[in-house]
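Exercise 7.
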Amino acid sequence: MHPDYLATRYAQGRAERDQLPLVQVQHHHAHISACLADNGWKSDDPVIGLAFDGTGYGTDGAIWGGEVLLTNYSGFERRFHLEYVPLPGGDVSIRKPARLALAYLHKFGLLNQAETLAPFRFLDEIERQVLVHQVDTGFNTSFHSSMGRLFDAVAALIGLYQEINYEAQNAIALESIVDPNELLAYDFFIEGEQILLKPLFEQILADLQNNLSQALISAKFHNGVLKLALDVCQRLRDETGLNTVAISGGVWQNKRLIKNIIPALEKAGFSPLWHHQVPTNDGGVALGQLMTALFQTGMFKE
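Solution. The predicted structure, written as tokens, is:
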């Protein structure tokens, strides 16, 4: 769907030139469709979709990535998502998670509590001033609901990589230091369809001020994400009666998350579906796009 992608422009031009049907499939919808296909799902019955990912173009033009969907192959309804936060400079902030962390804190009015923390010290005064100006004015700043970027920002905030060399470097580092014995979890609060993030950062800042270890903060963050995932599924089951949960997106490459969400869902009476043969990251998106196109055009045949 992204209007600037070469593949999008090619498909639009080819469809117009050769009079072919053009089906554009939203990125996170494709993730869940890929998971359904990976599990041999042949009907168009709806499921709850947990699409936790890094980056995907949303139907509103924002960058999505922390999405809870009611979805089947043919379509989807976005029911919950991480609240939008700024991404000043786009790819610059993705490569420098220190910028992400400070952008979150400034957005939530918490930047004055960060002066002793690693991301604040990593950026010089001029770069901090430019970042604050971008967040305040929206100059060269997009907005996102990305779970992947949230992992990056939390990792930078607690002192892991402030600049990265490859995708998910900070998320991998954050997972690697988890204290497996910590059972406490940060709380996520939901308002309407938005999953609020200011309370999360307030909890993390309080723990940093109390000198809680990186390992314990990482564990509480991971546990909080798991608790959130279960909570939104229970809310949607109460509303719709749906019991099947499809899990997809690059964030679910995190072994601590995927190994714990499945038994948690099963214990709560859900039927979880996850990837077995097709990658949960963007390596599976093409399959999901194909399946959605087949169902939308009525061309699917068992």
